[in-house]
Design goal:
10-stranded mixed β-sheet, 380 residues, alpha/beta
Amino acid sequence: MRAADGTLGQFVLKVASRCDLGCDYCYVYRMADRSYARQPRFMSRATLGRTAERIAEHAAAHRLRRVRMVFHGGEPMLAGPAYLAEAARTLRAALPPGVEAELSVQTHGGLLDEPFLEVLDEHRIRVGVSLDGDARHHDRHRLLRTGQGSYEQTARGLRLLTSERFRHLFAGLLCVVDLANDPIEVYRALLAFRPPVVDFLLPHANWTRPPPGLAGAGPAPYGKWLCKVFDRWYDAPAPETTVRLFSDLIRGYTGRPARSEQIGLSPPGFAVIDTDGALQQVDTLKSVRPGAADTGLHVATHSMDEVAGHPDVRARGRGLAGLCATCRSCPLVRICGGGAYVHRFGPAGDFGNPSVYCHDMAALIRHAVRRLAADLGPAA
């Protein structure tokens, strides 16, 4: 969720700092920042309560009608159903009257069972699941600690989540792009669960740590991969799902702001609260260098307004003025927005660069714009 006025509308609560999977592309455990090892395994109830108070203060000060709160990790479901139920009650009870709370959990899905889903249903907590395709695709990277693939556990949880009894809780699927996987096969495997939303994420990479396969795979390999999915999605005789990246691209083409951080120029509108109560920027910054996500702020002593006003957060929200000269002069910038902030990190230790996926995003946008122009006419 992104805010145009510097307020925060979404809060990511790192309720668990550990995970029972060993995914080899994970930015929390496999990249530059290993601070998870110093974090409490779970967010304490005292920290949770203070977090609820800070969110409530922010909602009241900015007269928000709705806040979104995501239980995240690690694997947040390791905290257990009783913990998440208490967390939901605590967060909702703290909010001012008339403020709606949208709660969700982002999980690998392997711990979903009927009793857990009954608790999530009781407390109106929606569920997003990470899935990279069928077993062959998914198990390339998303492994159990034993080294075995995790697909069967995830698929079992998804089948229960998408059953008639619990489908209303299903928030969507998150899929990391892998050039080794056939894009259409992956997309069909995701559609098999009839997700309301699909998020395709590029592997977290930057100029100091380029993404797998970018060199030597020909021009714009990730862009070509996504173009194939775009055509399959766009040409479907009836809508099958929302693909957030493509929907945001269309929003940009028609002159509307994007709703995610992958593309677009809208400022960020969320904060991350770590298990120890530290207030952080977007946690994917942990992929670039140790401490990159840190603000030095804490729920015990600082407000959410102070997070929104932090110099690094403000730098991410400068829009066109915050981009490098190459991006500012690019005709695609109003749609691309420079790409994801985390993908702009370079050898000089700053973010004043085009995205490491610049050519890939340009290929996708140009391809999509040609399709859209033929059907909708010139861009807004």
